[in-house]
Specification:
The complex is a heterodimer of chains A (about 325) and B (about 180).
Chain A (H helix, E strand, L loop, with lengths): L7 H29 L15 H11 L10 H18 L17 H23 L2 H32 L4 H7 L10 H14 L24 H26 L11 H22 L5 H30 L4
Helix pairs in contact in A: 1-8, 1-9, 2-8, 3-4, 3-8, 4-5, 5-7, 5-10, 7-8, 8-9
Chain B lengths: L1 H20 L25 E3 L14 H5 L5 E7 L5 E9 L8 H5 L5 E3 L14 E2 L1 H4 L12 H4 L27
Antiparallel strand pairs in B: 1-4, 2-3, 3-5
The chains are: A mainly alpha (about 325), B alpha+beta (about 180).
The complex binds iron/sulfur cluster (2 copies).
């Protein structure tokens, strides 16, 4: 079948859609922020300012692609593609709809977590290679932030895995046919969402690139398309975390039958993307030691508690205790 | 614990909701080139030199505005006509330096120099930002309609002798006081 999981057509369509959506987010984010800040946002280029994306693309491609002479060339050039590649890799395991996806992996959840951790290399290498104090501060913060959220990010998902009994994202969705996991796993959802915001370096947890404090953090020295890759990487991260939230807690493509499954998936994902942007408009950024304290002393115990209760519940259901 | 949840969760949710509600408010943006904004009358924009109610130049070339100007963008030269009125021979404002602070208007003793709500002053050639007296001088009285410096000040000019200004008593003839 042409439209099967992993067919070239399917892969191409997914890659194309994901990248277009990430690029359109440049415009969506600015319009939505405008809406919530009682402004208009870009509305001049094309209908509703839709062609703003094209204008921004032309600008970013035409910019001088400069490597500072004091930077470590190899890692400086290596860092930006990493984040794009690992996040696009994570999309391979996302089940978009029945029969739409790239691979049907039995270790989907683990794969996503592994790729997310690799993404941190991009931020750290970029900051270190820039040989700039702000970039260094940014990547230090990124490292500090990563060790605090990666732990409970993983643990918060284990509740879902325990309920399904599988690491396969497709099976996780199917297991939600009789009730989305948002209800039994509400705490897991909250924790994973907080970790996801930190993962994609979005406000309020954009501590590694806090532009009001440390210029632009780890990408201070980047320009042109190298900066563009960090930028698109961030938006890809938003799309990834939103679709993961949908898959893990909101029943993926499941929904009333009057709309095709893929539309349900896209609608739910769009909702979470908008929510991410609302977070940016509303919540101020904490200090990074506050995030670490909050992560280690509150969210980690909470996620462990959640896992234990879920585990006990699963065992009780199976009659083991 | 309750306090912690209140601080970390409830307050964030309330914030999110309040910001979300802004989506239904009217935007404050004025789409400027298409819609002209309503400028306040006291907006400090393009500078003009006004005339008094008789149609004469108000500026008496006292240089106070040039002294007050924090960026030194006013240049002028005093001249005197045959009636004894002082006036600027040239009066030059370099608008590429002017910061529209309005200090010149504050300093001016004759209400000659005034700032107006016009702000569309962009030019392609830098030299065009330097405005001469012909460009600055308008035919009206600007914001202050009745003020006429020479009709109030005691200075003698053609057609108005000492003692003829408004609220001014004729000068005392000291000889008439002699015994
Ligand atoms: S507005 Fe301020 S800067 Fe401009 S000419 Fe007057 S005093 Fe100078
Ligand atoms: S504009 Fe006013 S302050 Fe300036 S020289 Fe003329 S009278 Fe004096």
């Amino acid at each position: 079948m042409v439209w099967d999981v992993g067919s070239p057509l399917s892969i191409g369509a997914i890659l194309f859609t994901v990248i277009i959506v990430a690029a359109m987010l440049i415009w969506v984010e600015r319009r939505l922020l405008g809406l919530w800040q009682e402004r208009l946002g870009p509305n001049r280029v094309g209908p509703f300012g839709l062609l703003q994306v094209v204008a921004d693309m032309i600008k970013i491609f035409a910019k001088e692609d400069w490597v500072p002479p004091f930077a470590d060339k190899f890692s400086f050039i290596l860092a930006p593609p990493i984040i794009m590649i690992v996040i696009l890799m994570s999309f391979t395991v996302i089940p978009f709809a029945p029969g739409v996806g790239v691979i049907d992996s039995d270790i989907g959840v683990l794969f996503v977590l592994a790729m997310a951790s690799l993404g941190a290399y991009s931020v750290m290498l970029g900051g270190l290679a820039s040989n700039n104090k702000y970039a260094l501060l940014g990547s230090l913060r990124a490292a500090a932030q990563m060790v605090s959220y990666e732990v409970f990010m993983g643990i918060s998902l284990l509740g879902v895995v325990a309920l399904t009994g599988s690491f396969n994202l497709r099976e996780i969705v199917i297991a939600q046919s009789d009730g989305w996991y948002i209800i039994p796993q509400f705490i897991g959802f909250l924790i994973f969402m907080i970790a996801g915001i930190a993962e994609s370096h979005r406000l309020p947890f954009d501590i590694p690139e806090a532009e009001q404090e440390i210029v632009a953090g780890y990408h201070t020295e980047y320009s042109g398309m190298k900066f563009g890759m960090f930028f698109v990487g961030e938006y890809l991260g938003v799309v990834l975390i939103s679709s993961l939230l949908v898959v893990l807690f909101f029943g993926g493509w499941l929904g009333p039958a009057f709309l095709p499954p893929i539309v349900w998936f896209l609608l739910k994902t769009a909702f979470f993307i908008a929510f991410f942007i609302l977070l940016r408009a509303a919540i101020p950024r904490p200090r990074y030691d506050q995030l670490m304290t909050y992560g280690w002393l509150f969210l980690l115990p909470l996620s462990l508690l959640n896992l234990m209760i879920t585990g006990a519940f699963v065992l009780w259901q199976e009659g083991a205790i | 614990m309750i306090q912690l949840i209140k601080d970390t969760l409830i307050s964030q949710v309330v914030t999110l909701w309040r910001v979300f509600v802004h989506a239904f408010d009217k935007t404050d943006t004025v789409e400027y080139p298409d819609v002209q904004p309503q400028m306040a009358a006291r907006w400090r924009g393009r500078i003009i030199l006004s005339r008094d109610p008789d149609g004469e130049e108000r500026c008496v070339a006292c240089n106070l505005c040039a002294v007050a100007c924090p960026v030194d963008c006013i240049a002028l030269q005093k001249a005197e006509d045959e009636e004894g009125r002082w006036y600027p021979e040239f009066f030059r404002i370099n608008f590429s330096r002017c910061i529209m602070c309005g200090f010149c208007e504050e300093a001016c003793p004759t209400n000659a120099i005034q700032l107006t709500p016009d702000f569309e002053m962009a030019e392609y050639v830098r030299q065009d930002m330097v405005w001469e007296k012909e460009d600055l001088l308008i035919n009206g009285t600007g914001k202050y309609h009745d003020y006429n410096f020479y009709r109030i000040a005691g200075k003698k000019i053609g057609g108005k002798d000492k003692g003829e200004a408004r609220n001014e008593a004729p000068p005392v003839d000291v000889r008439s006081l002699l015994p």
